[in-house]
Amino acid sequence: MALNAIxxxxxxxxxxxxxxxxxxxxxxxxxLRPEGLRLVADWVHEYExxxxxxxxxxxxxxRQKHRSNK
Amino acid sequence: xxxxxxxEVTVExxxxxxxxxxxxxWLNPKIPGTxxxxxxxxxxxxxxxxxxxxxxxxxxxxxxxxxxxxxxxIQHTWMSPNTSGLESMVTVTFRAKGKDTLMxxxxxxxxxxxGGRSHEKGWNFFLDGFHSQLAKSGGM
Lengths: 70, 140
Description:
The complex is a heterodimer of chains A (70) and B (140).
Chain A lengths: L2 H13 L3 E6 L2 E6 L1 H10 L2 H24 L1
Chain B lengths: L5 E10 L3 H8 L14 E4 L6 E6 L2 E11 L3 E6 L9 E10 L2 E12 L2 H4 L2 H17 L4
């Protein structure tokens, strides 16, 4: 990925409040701001979360069964 | 809570089993990931017009099966305190995908309210407990 593209992506993430930049001398430190992601997670309907977790477990059960049958 | 808007949730997974195996497992309360697994109290009659009742952490869930077509489709209504009095509908389909099964679950008619969304903490608590129980039982 070109440096310009990375800069552009970082600016977008910063504008969305998902990362934070801190300049120390010549270096720029970038850190994650998880609160922003939490807001997105809150928006997901409880049942979307519920069924995703359920189907993960269901899928995992068969994957494990399939592996032990090999 | 006077908002009548409803939403639909769709979740898909590929199951490493035939549609028939996945179908049978979905109706087996002993299999992790099924809604009936680890219920405190369970009544389950998976036939058309058969009812289910299950409760976990004191929360009751009721429904009536409207389609039980092995191996392709299971459909039932779903009511709980989280559906705010609405009779939502859960449709699960199982389609062959090579040797595996594409499983699609659609939960329609869910209330789209702030109240509904605010239950997140409660569900996370439930799911955390569910995972630790699974870990204790060796992931079975």
